[in-house]
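To: structure subgroup
Subject: Chain for Friday's discussion

All,

I'm putting the inputs and outputs inline so they're searchable in the archive.
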Amino acid sequence: MDKKILCKKLGKELPALKVPPMPGPKGLEVMNLVSEEAWEMWKSHQTTLINEKHLDMSDPENRKYLMEQMDKFFNNEDYEKATGFKALD
């Protein structure tokens, strides 16, 4: 049976991540507070930000920006959205 957590992004009990999604304390924090579903949502949004903003992930400032956006995303704060993206109706 999958472990469930109260996901801070989606506000409901959902299956937890099975392993930390990144090394270190931040990875453990995300694993303990964010569901698999919310993590998949973030990965998609993260890819959009990297592509649209042409982020170079070898640049520490770009990685810092992306981590800040991830924190805002999971805390349901005002995070950066893609400007060139249009949802299909």
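Points worth raising on Friday:
The chain has a mean pLDDT of 92.
The beta strands are 4-6, 13-15.

D.
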